[in-house]
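Batch 3, record 17
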Amino acid sequence: MMSIAVIYGGTRPNGNTECLASKAIDSLKVEKIFLRDYKILPIVDYRHSPEGFPFVEDEYDSVINQALPHDTWVFVTPIYWYSMSGTMKNFIDRWSQTMRDSRYPGFRSQLADKRAFVIAAGGDHPKMKGLPMIMQFQHIFNFFGTTFEGYVIGKASRPGDMVNDFEALSAAADLGKVLEKYQ
Amino acid sequence: MMSIAVIYGGTRPNGNTECLASKAIDSLKVEKIFLRDYKILPIVDYRHSPEGFPFVEDEYDSVINQALPHDTWVFVTPIYWYSMSGTMKNFIDRWSQTMRDSRYPGFRSQLADKRAFVIAAGGDHPKMKGLPMIMQFQHIFNFFGTTFEGYVIGKASRPGDMVNDFEALSAAADLGKVLEKYQ
Amino acid sequence: MMSIAVIYGGTRPNGNTECLASKAIDSLKVEKIFLRDYKILPIVDYRHSPEGFPFVEDEYDSVINQALPHDTWVFVTPIYWYSMSGTMKNFIDRWSQTMRDSRYPGFRSQLADKRAFVIAAGGDHPKMKGLPMIMQFQHIFNFFGTTFEGYVIGKASRPGDMVNDFEALSAAADLGKVLEKYQ
Amino acid sequence: MMSIAVIYGGTRPNGNTECLASKAIDSLKVEKIFLRDYKILPIVDYRHSPEGFPFVEDEYDSVINQALPHDTWVFVTPIYWYSMSGTMKNFIDRWSQTMRDSRYPGFRSQLADKRAFVIAAGGDHPKMKGLPMIMQFQHIFNFFGTTFEGYVIGKASRPGDMVNDFEALSAAADLGKVLEKYQ
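Prediction for the assembled complex:
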């Protein structure tokens, strides 16, 4: 059974990155997770404390529990300062804690079995200046053994701009064709 | 009048990255800012709302106010998932708000007049896999016109590991010699 | 008057990269330059010799003379060892000599007025591992002030493979729509 | 038995990159290979021809034969156009041929057993703009399984400039300490 989770890191509803993503997924069956709807605290590194990580009072668990059952993860993030949003970074940073959380014994190998896609948009030469972010995602996925199957980067700054980047919209639509078989 | 702010993104006191940084700055007069001591919320993008960004109830202002008087900024961050910590990313993301905050009219040109350094440490091949983060910092500094004068990347995972990377410690000491004239 | 030069760095006629490029340019009026048809020696660095660069007995001049009249340059190169082919690198390296060649007084500013595109293909995760090459091209174009307007990377190893990367072919076709207005 | 080959890609004797490298290796026993002393033609891709690669009339074999017995390879290259020199690229491109050359049956696994270092210098912000080249080397070494143990990048343009980059010279000296145990 295959299924898709789309994980949104944007903080503005219906932003340009969501618009770009919709071109890929609008006709697909996916579970959408908007990180902005959840309180997710930055990680505090207790990896090396004898007592381990303390319980964190936020809604991270709810998010990871929603995402884990799906074997395809699509990360949708605006490019903030040439990388993913802090909102999405906070979410991913917390994986370090989950890797050591006895409630998630197979977390690392679960991620190894997933395939990942990235859809991103930004205003300042994103197809060039967004590449370090793509490399960061690649390193993250390599860490787990997650297969990184594709990415699309769109250019847009002001609300509504996304419709002008026909190359990105077309690439997103093509990505959607790849995603079709994973829903 | 020149002076140095050292901005720490680590969440563990006396972590490896701090150890590496201390090699560069221990004999210098600097102002240390530990982001973990402040509550800094992720940005919510209101750049394009007619009413602009709402006031945020956290301690970001206190941090930026401490940092701005200094013309040399040293960013010290552990490498979390191949980029800066979420704590530091949240701090930098908020600059987008400060750029539009009438209380900080010269923010962008103030940053143009600064010089920046980065000191980072990580456990997974950081001198290779940390390079996208260095590129990301370069793009950030280029945006403002901040001069990016140097960086050091150390390898360390477990507490205390830093002392084993003699090349990084030596490079940090050399960076300290460059910083001397900016204090 | 606008016109397009397509500069091929591949060494195998009708290779995968050429196949990908043809999707972009087949219906356009372009001048094709196959670097493999010319003898181009690696540069020898005489930038700092009092007597300057000696005359080089090869066919580089013929190539650069063909390319210079066109204001859009499309670089088409297979990815060899994660960068452009040595054939193309030798060609670009020689620009350092042309910049100091009294027969080409406006070389640097001529390149500033050009727009550039890159079309590349490789077999080993090219959409990830080809990104450093894209960054290298970006730095080259930035040096001159050439605008870097787009790139497409395709995946293909064995002859004929290119037809299987429908996303790259589609992106190349979209690039062709951009190129249309520059012919 | 361990030993070191230093492979130089520069075209100007006693250039800045050689000066930087000398800081690392001057007190070590190494075999120096200056690629500029050999005629090495760009590869022509016959990987997929039924008859395979034809014999090439140049001096590549002599170079690879000198290098192969050593288990540590130090690549020393000036940064030309944000990557290795064409001279060095031509050398590395030819590895694709050697991988299919019956006279070198174990080439790929031989390279897997080597450790590699890179020493490079350039004039245009090399510690930033040289990073894609470092990534490119990393991908090359990853292909074979060669361990990439370190790199130093120095800043220098005009002859003699290298002495002014004390941080790079110091890093090269530290690299030399690492190399000591591999001679």
